[in-house]
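[STRUCTURE TOKENS]
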Amino acid sequence: MAPPPAKRRKVQIQYRDNKRKKPYKAHKKQFLESGQRGFLATCNSNEWDCVKECYNILNQYADVLYGADEGEIKPDRKKDGKGHDSNAVIEEEGSTDDGNDIADDLQKQIKATKEKVKRRFQVVETGVSNCVFIKTVLENPVPLALHIIEDIAKTKKQASRYLTRLIPVQAVCSVSKEGIVKAAARICDKYFQTEPTTFSIVYNKSYKHNIDRENLIKELATLIHAKNADHKVDLKHPKKTFFIQLLKNLCCLSIVDNYVRYKKYNLIELARAEECPDNTDTEVKDDKEAANDGEVVEAKNAEKVEEKIVYKDKKRLAETEGSNAKKTIKIAADS
């Protein structure tokens, strides 16, 4: 026997109330800012998968070097029978016993709830596609990145599928010659006020900027030689590499070790490589020799281009002579 219409209508109303959608809270995006430090990650596609792999790799190796991240662990708060926080109840009771004002207690509770737990690694927007930045609270991200690179080079285990390059960033500054040189001066003392070593400067950009590349590289080289005049330029296998990456409106700077030896910090290529070459047999050259080598390479390339042009001209000449010979044979046969 069917239920009366009144009860059926009541059930339908209750069902509709349960199906109401919860309000959506949009998360605010965090953007890359000057003064931050972290890791610059690149990928070919699937940026969110790249971010997940960055979190997994960085947290895995950071736990080994620095221990577990206690900042991300949230304390378990016990609730009483009414669903309220027992710790908050105890604090309120203690405050009333001490005679403190209720307004002060409320302000303390609001401040405690608004305090965000600082994560060890947090993704921020760069404004460049397939380019991810993971900011960190670590004072220097270079040791962690070098530990990851050396472990992958030793074990030959591919740790990522979408993440290709992972480069530490020690300073983020504005895209200007003065800002880059000023930020570079702050990080050069630790790495170049040492014994003579070999170095190179890598300059990359994602957008078109009004910065003269050659003048900037010369000024940075002068800055490095000011720390120690015996430093030499080595473009093949430098021990130190000054890395510069120009993004949309900010610039990332870092000084990394064995950049060329470790496949330009490409995790996938590093896992596939059979053996990384040592830096013992590298040829050290000064600025003039490096410039002369560049001129020799350009001259060789020009000779190759000329040879290709001459070969194409000879090939065309042979084809035209062959076609003319065929025409003369055909005319003789017709006659």
In short: Residues 73-83, 86-96, 280-284, 290-300 have pLDDT under 50 and may be disordered. Residues 12 and 18 are 10 Å apart (CA to CA). The radius of gyration is 32 Å.
